[in-house]
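2024-03-11 09:14:02 DEBUG pipeline.ingest accepted 1 chain
2024-03-11 09:14:02 DEBUG pipeline.ingest length=370
2024-03-11 09:14:03 DEBUG pipeline.predict start
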Amino acid sequence: MQKEITGRAQVDGQRLRARKRFVYLVALAAGVAIFLLSWMIRTPGDAFLAYLYPLFALMLVALFVAVWRAPGPLSRLEPWMLGLVAAMILSRLAWHFHAGGPLDAHLLVLAGGHYWAVGIVILAAFVMLEHRRGLRAGLAILVVATLIAVSGIAGEWQQGALSREAAVYLLRIHLFLAVLLGLASVATSMRDTVKDALVRSEALEQAARTDPLTGLANRRAAEAVLEQHAASVRHDGVPVTVIGLDIDHFKSVNDTHGHATGDAVIAGVAAILRASVRKPDLVARWGGEEFLIVAPHVGREGGLELAERCRQAIAREPIAEVPVTASFGVTTFDPQDTLDDVLGRADDMMYRAKEAGRDRVLSDDALACA
């Protein structure tokens, strides 16, 4: 079970990274298109567009290739991406305020063509970075944009060339960006809080269903899986085999070698069982030195073969320098069986195997192989 949970987490992480990579590639491709289109329809005399926009497009193409070919997580590349894009947008904003002519003449261009981009970069800071770093980056972008605006309009303000409407318009824009920064900060903080709570909840649930010594499913988890398989047997007739096993002479292992060795033996048997079963099979520590194997889509004959394979694997070599064997009881679900019926038969066969000499497999149809 531990391996399955870890495997699912790894798959989910890979999917998330793949989606993030895809989003970045789409955004970078869109950025290249925007810069090139702006360059193609530029007005005469706009030196910034004429010379720097093609350079910006090439930089985004280089970032596109870097993201495309990055072998692992993008965490090291993301701050550079954010910083470069922010520098592009803020430099164009600075040109408008300091070299673009009277502010009133291109105020709508600023609002419709550049301040929205500043807002997107602020949001991108929270998407690309964790909350605290995103807040610092977003705040830095807002502060730089505000300083650019203040320094750009200072001259016009002193000369009385700045209209009251333009000043109010710019103030509203920067207040909007500040509100956007605050909302993004709150939203990402809530996201991280919920995420942490889910992670803790999943960890607690995993701990409640996992045996700490072996990493196998515990009795509670095994019973839940057995209930699911019992329903499948009743409704669909799917064969399910249940195998109970107990380590032979385990008390003498503890008495002779100590409890630390006993724990090592239990952990070693668990590792052997996990390596001997199929992927769909469940291996659980039932309690003490007892284990349970649940094998779906396996009939009695297949269950006997699986139990014998596990028995031979355990007996093959000493575990923690102690010779170890185990006794196995095999049964299968019948449609009319309750959980207690199946577990009782598996337990009965396991103890009969012990009475018959241990280190053997018995099934409830009296078929045995030693």
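2024-03-11 09:14:41 DEBUG pipeline.report Strands lie at 240-247, 282-287, 290-296, 326-332, 361-363, 368-369.
2024-03-11 09:14:41 DEBUG pipeline.predict end
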